[in-house]
Task: inverse folding
């Protein structure tokens, strides 16, 4: 009897241990920037820590910067969809034309310069217009960054004519359309390629945020950083934080609930706020290194906005020919932005 009891206890303990082990989950999330940049520092890592804490240690989220798990930044959506990674950070605009409705949020002077506000708008817009596009993944957050500005070699931009002849990196199709409209030669490229392109003279500069500037060494590779006047951003970029759908569905309900509680508008606003925090730090680094900080006058900003309106009008015409209601998409984007202020 003692032997049987001991055997029964041992088998029960082993079964319990196996069951507990089966409930423990490690999720591998990938992104394409420095772990010291704003989103990984103020959103991704705190989010991962909160997931672990809220699950009482049953979920561990591992973060891999610089695409360490393989693939290229433009293919991140497919890597997540196909299960090559459990989750990660995606810029849909890195695949021009694939997610056309998302471009409405990226049109010139669409968003405010507050990333948190823009991100709340992005989440609401996503829920209304983009969930079909993202049906093959599990969406956690949709967000924007803070103000996008011009970083370049040489003096700061002062007027529209200063763009003429400049080769400038752009992160998305709407951004490159605006650069082209202002007389620059736009060069589309993902952020990891930007520093090398600058150092080799492939581009004269580009548009990106304050917060990314230190990790890209823009204090060394460029001389000036130019924002526009007013409360609207020259351009913005749309991001998603997402998970492989099958991996999410494989979780027990209580662990799905942990992910769900850290998703949606809450997580989107958090991600946008991370960029706002990073912008303060990044701008100060550029100032401390003695780089020129420029702000385009209100009069010249108005000229740029007029060119931006032309880009938007042309975008509406183009997107409508593809069977989408371009005017409605723009109207909804503007309404959600206004509502989030």
Result:
């Amino acid at each position: 009897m003692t032997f049987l009891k001991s055997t029964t206890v041992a088998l029960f303990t082993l079964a319990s241990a196996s069951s507990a082990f089966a409930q423990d989950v490690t999720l591998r999330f990938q992104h394409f920037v420095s772990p010291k940049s704003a989103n990984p520092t103020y959103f991704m890592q705190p989010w991962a820590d909160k997931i672990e804490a809220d699950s009482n240690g049953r979920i561990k989220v591992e973060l891999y910067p610089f695409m360490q798990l393989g693939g290229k930044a433009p293919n991140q959506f497919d890597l997540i969809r196909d299960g090559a990674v459990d989750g990660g950070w995606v810029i849909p605009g890195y695949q021009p034309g694939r997610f056309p409705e998302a471009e409405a949020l990226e049109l010139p002077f669409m968003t405010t310069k507050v990333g948190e506000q823009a991100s709340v708008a992005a989440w609401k817009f996503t829920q209304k217009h983009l969930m079909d596009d993202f049906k093959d993944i599990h969406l956690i957050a949709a967000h924007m960054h803070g103000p996008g500005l011009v970083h370049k070699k040489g003096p700061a931009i002062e007027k529209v004519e200063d763009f003429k002849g400049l080769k400038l990196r752009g992160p998305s199709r709407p951004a490159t359309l605006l650069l082209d409209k202002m007389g620059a030669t736009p060069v589309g490229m993902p952020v990891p390629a930007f520093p090398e392109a600058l150092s080799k003279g492939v581009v004269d500069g580009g548009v990106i945020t304050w917060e990314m500037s230190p990790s890209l060494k823009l204090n060394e590779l460029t001389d000036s950083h130019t924002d526009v006047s007013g409360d609207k951003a020259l351009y913005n970029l749309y991001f998603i934080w997402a998970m492989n759908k099958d991996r999410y569905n494989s979780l027990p309900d209580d662990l799905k609930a942990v992910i769900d509680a850290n998703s949606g508008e809450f997580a989107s606003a958090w991600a946008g706020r991370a960029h706002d925090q990073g912008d303060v730090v990044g701008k100060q680094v550029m100032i401390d290194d003695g780089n020129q900080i420029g702000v385009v006058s209100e009069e010249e900003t108005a000229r740029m906005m007029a060119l931006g309106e032309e880009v938007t009008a042309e975008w509406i015409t183009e997107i409508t020919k593809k069977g989408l209601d371009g005017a409605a998409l723009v109207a909804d984007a503007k309404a959600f932005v206004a509502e989030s202020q």
Residues 25-97+114-144+238-279 form a domain with the D-Maltodextrin-Binding Protein; domain 2 fold (CATH 3.40.190.170). The chain has two domains: 25-97+114-144+238-279, 149-235+288-340.
